[in-house]
Amino acid sequence: MIKGSTRLYMALAATALLAFNLTACGGKQESNNEANAPGRNLLESIKSNGEITVGTEGTYAPFTFHDKEGKLTGFDVQVAEEVAKRLGVKAKFVETQWDGMLAGLDAGRFDMVANEVTIRDDRKEKYDFSDPYIVSKAVLIVQESNTDIKKLADLKGKKSGQSLTSDLGDIAKANGAEIVQIEGFNQAIDLLTSGRIDATINDKLSFLDLKKQRPDVPIKVVDETDNASQSGLLFRKDNAELVSAVNKAIADMKADGTYLNISNTYFGEDVSK
User: Fold this and answer.
1) CA atoms of 270 and 183, how far apart (whole Å)
2) What is the pLDDT of residues 133-189, one digit of tens each?
3) Could you tell me the pTM of the whole model?
4) How far apart are CA 207 and CA 213, in angstroms?
5) Using an 8 Å Cβ cutoff, are 87 and 249 in contact?
6) Greatest distance between any 2 Cα atoms in the chain
7) How far apart are CA 226 and CA 158, in angstroms?
8) Dihedral sign for Cα atoms in the order 133, 137, 58, 172
9) Which of 42, 133, 158, 221 could be stapled to 139 by a disulfide with Cβ–Cβ 3.0 to 4.6 Å?
């Protein structure tokens, strides 16, 4: 049996403990809300947090990949790091497969996507893009010994390795190809050289980089799209302040030569034109 004085003591102690917990929880909530306070836009939250989270594949050389030491690097990675620097924050990269990239942006896993995302009208209905910073064409790649596929129309009924939601996959589908889902450029090339797919449509700059790194890989380009595509950094809608700040950073990078230095490192030329 609990005596009256003891019962009173325990009740007071429980009340004090409850008050402490409520205070602690309230303090934590206040801290979380600090970065997302009502009325604070995403740019202000990013600056308050000191970092911008960036979605990228990490398997798409030379745009985003891991070097021999395992460090994430590439053209898009360096551009994003330079943009972050000019915003006064650090870039925190979140690696994910392309097919989950847009869903990750929707879910708020990152603030921006840097992964050579083609600017398309259907994407612009749901997302905002920065000003274009890459211009490139899509090319049709086959095994060096392949003489059956000479143009995009020859893909009809052939197996083409593509990410399901990319515009490159859309080009393959439009030309009648049977799509074999891949996780990235490297896997597509592996499947192609091992004969498990007939072709892949991919970025011309990625192909040129691969041939520079691995000149003996037995593949060739047999066709390319007529029109060059423009790529931009990708954002959720209604973050005009962030998009405007990023556009200024890109413009300043181009004006002071930083963009050209990064572009020359990976492509030997200015790939913004």
Assistant:
1) 28
2) 999 999 999 999 999 999 999 999 999 999 888 889 999 999 999 999 998 899 999
3) 0.73
4) 10
5) yes
6) 95
7) 21
8) positive
9) 221
